[in-house]
Amino acid sequence: MADRDDYKREDDEEADEEVENDYKSQNDAIILAIDVSDTMLEQPPASTSRKADKDSAVQAALKCAYQLMQQRIIASPKDMMGILFFGTEKSKFQEHSGRSGLGYPHCYLHIDLDIPAAEDVKALKALVEDEEDEDGVLIPSTTEKVQMANVFFCANQIFTTKAANYSSRRLFILTDNDSPHPSDKAAKSAAAVRAKDLYDLGVNIELFPITRGDNEFDLANFYDDIIYRDANAEANHSEVRYSKTADGLSLLNSLISNINSKQVAKRALFSSVPLEIAPGLRISIKGYNILHRQEPARSCYVWLEGEKPQIVAGETTRISEDTARTVEKSETKKAYKFGAEYIYFSPEDQKRAKDFGPPIIRIIGFKSRAHIPFWASVKKSTFIFPSEEDFVGSTRVFSALWQKLLKSNKVAIAWCIIRANATPVLSAIIPSHESTEESNATPFLPAGLWLYPLPFADDLRGGPATDGTEPPRASNELVDQMRVIVQQLQLPKAMYNPTRYPNPGLQWHYKILQALALEEEVPEVPEDLTLPKHKAINKRSGGYLQDWAETLQEETQKTAKTTKTKREADDDADDVKPAKKVKASSTKPSASGMTDAQVRAAATAGSLTKMVVADLKDLLAMKGLSISVHLNEQDHSKSLEIQCEGKRSYGLLGGTQPRSKRSYVAYSSVRSMVLQQDAYTLSATSSAFAMSYLKGFRIRLSPWSRSIPRAHRCLHLAPPFLLDDYVPRYTMLSSVDAAMKRSKAYAHLRNCSLCPRLCGVNRYETTGHCLVGDKAKVNVIAPHFGEEPCIQGHNGSGAVFFSGCNLRCVFCQNHGIAHQRNGQNLTPEDLGELYLKLQDVGGVHNINLVTPEHVAPQVALSILHARDLGLRLPIIYNTSSFDSLESLELMDGLVDIYLPDFKVWEKATSKRLLKADDYASTARGSIKAMHAQVGDLCFTPDGIAKKGVLVRHLVMPGKEEEGKRIMQFLAEEVSKDCFVNVMEQYHPDAHVGKPRRRQGGKAAGSDISAESLRYSDINRAVSDQEVTSLRSAAEAVGLWRFCDPPKHDGFNI
């Protein structure tokens, strides 16, 4: 139940949400105490009846407990349940408590009180279905009787240690013995004391007596002193119900029915709200959600690296859409959109705007029940019941109001505010009948009053528009025949009872989960009690249905004849309409059924240009292509998009003026796709035919295209490096491999060995050389257009610039990002969600991780998280090559493209300029490991790189000899097909060219000579001669794939 003053909360930011979300769920803890005695274990007499009992009372109680456990796992997954046998030969208590079972003789705790786990279900199933009692649990005591005081004291200890804070704690006693201590008054007195202790603790004792045949269970013998029955209790079924066999009802079904009748009120919507019946007359009530749609529990993320799985708690970080900066909560305001404007509210203004007074339900009048139509409820109804907490006598006044409304067949109209900051709701207060009354149409619902929300004028919507014609009506004969059919097919007692129809989708979901958890065979077909029983339907009303169908067919034919006669009469009355003009046959060629020869002839004659767009679409569809046409309103040109095999290619621009070379490149890329009739080459005839084919689009080609040879390889790409399609490597990882990578990532963070510096620190506690802890620090996340053309494409590369670095390059071209450590700390989950945003919102070609060497574990975890969220873009690992082999092993299977830099060759140079002695040897090993994983750079037909290694080398002043050694290494030890980008954009940055530090007390900055500047030997740009020399050396050793501007139509790939 909700706390007494729960509605008095002042800080309610989400006050405009649904009212039913503002409840406090009441957790329930139940211990089933089952009597194990000779009479309870006695088998029922043999019978030929199918409905006769086949189970002993203990077996029926265990089966009932098994079903109850399954129900609670579905409907109440946070509730606890335990099973305690009493009267057994063996004794057992909680093993971890340090107290042996001897403290509670003949009490055996079979399943400890806890949220049911798979092991508990297995243990109970072994007793219920397999009837396995290997431990001899179900053997009754032969030496002495069990003391009920011990049973109650044992239950007291269990509730105290396992469910101390649960708001509902109940002890269910299942027994057939109405007098466990017939002649021992001391034992009776001790049991009553222990029962009183349980009630003082807040534990309710519920008795489920079992009777067979003519035997009677007399409560007065013992249990009248144990069971406290409050006449003013809020439960509708406060009397003790007997479980027995009668009228074809088995003992098991009787037990299940009785236990289900003791369901605790689970949805306390509000507590102690005043109900004002008249001015000055108020009572206190509580509200419950009696009807609540049950849905499968939501899936959750769990951490599997601990001793047992733990649920992962998520944190929300708000990111600015344009700058990717983290936005603090204090920087935001709550606003409402009014037209095109945003109206901002301060918290105080918002409270005042929503303040309609304290919670109250005020009756403003009464109406006949017939005035409330069935469609008037805009929300589900709330069951209300009296509470004596604030106003003594509320129960009597409430009962008088309920009985008066029932007797007068009236409803009350009330103005309701059921919680603070809630908007007023107009509701009808409708009474429900007692469950025992024959007139009650809902005996499965409690008796009392219901708040039935009514619509306001703003809630009404218009119905479908009609043309004013009267729809056909069924004849009286049809209605009479259908009435007989309905009477034959009525549900039992002519009402729908939801307790008879479990949700098949919900049950099937948990059946599968249970089968997997218990390692059982997964059932093939779900059990669905809502399916119609066709045999029974045909048996009860088959003949009536056939007669009704024949009558319906006859009336339909009569109605059709009448309508046709009326239409003919209307047509005769109209004037003669003039004949339609016959359109002259068109001389334009038709695309339907044209052969290749006809297409060539039409292209030669120029008649393709006369075709309309629809004909062109038909023509392309014949060849497996499709187009979409868009009109540009500014220059009145058309943009055609050709799709080949369902994949979108570039647009073809046509207009009155020649486009730029980019338009030509786009055209040639599409042309290459259209011309690709075999694997990689075209004949001159096919090329000419396709060129003629495209003439019909009226595409104005740029001057460059006129000089292209007809027979030309379409993508200027050797076959081994062309991919028809590509699926990122991380999408093919199995769940086992993904779990192993997560485990390795966490291990790296606990003992960092990501780079050759081998700091070995615990990143959760401190930082190493990179000065970054367990969270990745990110400077910028945005589409980036500063990469190689095959990487950035037309939509950009989704760049993630990480702050920090494990090198200390004195000339760092990204000094502000790598060494100043600006940015935001992000978890792997945050990173994964931002990858999704780059994919879905930015539309980028790939995810480009820039300087990730020192955050490789966080990167691996973020990729796996993004994969689960739906990421499908290639991953680029943009690195300095100062990686350890362990780090690259972690990235194997997650990275599609490696973009390593190979900066310098000599050890002395790396020590002086990179502050790393072993850079060159590390880079050689890293690049070879990268190439072993993904191979040479490969592309899809759109010219975008998808997989492989692209090595960058920044040409530096005076270091061309080291560059030549690097090129030789790539050709001889990696691959002559290695794709290389010889970069010439070096410029003095970071520490290069800065004044030297003070020496001898004199500021070096006062002398502007070269000697006074730091790293003066590289304090200049590179020359053309240096770049040309290095390029020639690369070609001389056999390298041929370079990132150069193309000399042909398309990307140079």
TrEMBL record:
Single GO BP term: double-strand break repair via nonhomologous end joining
Gene Ontology molecular function: any one: ATP binding
Top-rank EC class of the record's enzyme: hydrolase
GO cellular component assignments: chromosome, telomeric region; Ku70:Ku80 complex
Reactions accelerated catalytically: ATP + H2O = ADP + phosphate + H(+)
Matching InterPro entries: Aldolase_TIM, DNA_bd_Ku70/Ku80, Ku70, Ku70_bridge/pillars_dom_sf, KU70_core_dom, Ku_C, Ku_N, MJ0674-like
UniProt-annotated stretches for the region Disordered: 1-26, 556-596
Composition bias, Basic and acidic residues: 1-10
Feature: compositional bias, Acidic residues: 11-20
Enzyme Commission number: 3.6.4.12
Major localisation: nucleus
Name of the molecule in the record: ATP-dependent DNA helicase II subunit 1
Location of the Ku domain: 324-471
Organism (species): Verticillium longisporum (Verticillium dahliae var. longisporum)
UniProt signal peptide: none
Family affiliation: Belongs to the ku70 family.
Known function: Single-stranded DNA-dependent ATP-dependent helicase. Involved in non-homologous end joining (NHEJ) DNA double strand break repair. DNA-binding is sequence-independent but has a high affinity to nicks in double-stranded DNA and to the ends of duplex DNA. Binds to naturally occurring chromosomal ends, and therefore provides chromosomal end protection. Required also for telomere recombination to repair telomeric ends in the absence of telomerase. KU70, of the KU70/KU80 heterodimer, binds to the stem loop of TLC1, the RNA component of telomerase. Involved in telomere maintenance.
Pfam families: Ku (PF02735), Ku_C (PF03730), Ku_N (PF03731), Radical_SAM (PF04055)
Keyword Zinc-finger: no
Keywords: ATP-binding, Chromosome, DNA damage, DNA recombination, DNA repair, DNA-binding, Helicase, Hydrolase, Iron, Iron-sulfur, Metal-binding, Nucleotide-binding, Nucleus, S-adenosyl-L-methionine, Telomere
Gene3D superfamilies tied to this protein: 1.10.1600.10, 2.40.290.10, Aldolase class I, Ku70, bridge and pillars, von Willebrand factor, type A domain
